[in-house]
Specification:
Layout lengths: L2 E5 L3 H13 L3 E5 L2 H10 L4 E4 L8 H10 L6 E5 L4 H10 L3 E4 L4 H20 L1 E4 L2 E4 L4 E4 L2 E3 L3 H13 L4 H4 L5
Parallel strand pairs: 1-2, 1-3, 3-4, 4-5
Antiparallel strand pairs: 6-7, 7-8, 8-9
Helix pairs in contact: 2-3
């Protein structure tokens, strides 16, 4: 089960996001500003952060800056009323992985959370799954429909890199494994 930290000073919105995440079976933690968020991170392993920008004491930009400087790599989804391109640019340049402008659609937020967690999990595991094809970078193994295939190291690395860059390649690779 994934742990998600919701950092939002608006109590009602924070509770709404937390409730929706819990319904999807995520473990949730709450903070009202960046300082509280850092305190939660000292105590809990967090897989993803959903944070506002405009908060008292420590805003979302400063939170992201501190997290990335401390080499935290979990995905960060900004949920904010700040909607200009310069606001979005600042968030992404600081290290945010996604950005939503309030008012938000909760179904969309849940979809974005799911995608961010999927990408982060794949990056951490170094495992690429495309349909029936599984490439495990740690094991240097290729499995297709439950059958293992041996590739030379350079062949595996090339295949992994191509497939990781785009699922577009899978229809071309699949027939080669038959």
């Amino acid at each position: 089960m994934f742990n998600i930290l919701v950092v939002e000073d608006d109590k009602n919105l924070r509770k709404l996001i937390v409730t929706c995440l819990k319904r999807e079976n995520y473990n949730t933690y709450e903070a009202t500003n960046g300082i509280e968020a850092l305190n939660v991170l000292d105590e809990q392993y967090i897989d993803l952060i959903v944070t506002d920008i405009m908060m008292p004491q420590m805003d979302g930009y400063e939170l992201i800056r501190e997290l990335r400087e401390a080499n935290y790599s979990m995905p960060i989804l900004l949920v904010t009323a700040k909607s200009t391109l310069s606001d979005k640019k600042e968030g992404f340049l600081l290290g945010a992985d996604d950005y939503m402008v309030k008012p938000i659609d909760m179904e969309e937020l849940l979809l974005r959370v799911k995608v961010l967690l999927k990408r982060a999990n794949a990056a951490n595991e170094k495992k690429l799954i495309i349909g029936n094809l599984v490439l495990d970078y740690k094991q240097m193994s290729v499995t297709y429909k439950g059958k293992n295939y041996q590739l030379a190291q350079k062949e595996f690395q090339l295949l992994y890199k191509l497939l990781r860059s785009s699922a577009f390649w899978s229809p071309f690779i699949e027939p080669l494994l038959l």
